[in-house]
Amino acid sequence: MSTDDSNDELLELLGQERVRQVLAATSRGPLSAKELSDECDVALSTIYRRAEEMVAHDLLVERTQIEPDGSHHSVFVANIDHLDVDIDDGKIDVSVHVREDAAQRFSRIWSDIREL
User: Fold this and answer.
1) Distance separating alpha carbons of residues 81 and 48, to the nearest angstrom
2) With b meaning 16 or more CB within 10 Å and e meaning fewer, what string describes 45-67?
3) Domain span at 93
4) I want to staple 30 with a disulfide (CB 3.0 to 4.6 A). Which of 7, 70, 75, 99 is the partner?
5) What domain count does the chain have?
6) Burial level of 76, CB count in 10 A (0-12/13-18/19+)?
7) pLDDT in tens, 25-50
């Protein structure tokens, strides 16, 4: 898939109201598919379809949440810090900047130091 195709897919995905609702909701914290379905007032099957697309484009991550009683379930968390859309010389480029947790940030910084 070309970069142009990937950019088009990402922009098309972000053009969907449900995708934007899911991003807004998960930016506040982890939510299960059921919680997203309730908050966004859409069918659970729609949430799963959108979440699958969003995970594929690095907009969401799926994590396993373990409860105090030992039970566990999947939750979705927004993985995006911000987007850059650059329009230059007849081309559109979309860059997704993902959130980093402390371990990822340390690994990136350590890698940068080793390259010096």
Assistant:
1) 22
2) eebeebbebbeebebbbeeeeee
3) 3-115
4) 75
5) 1
6) buried
7) 999 999 999 999 999 999 999 999 99
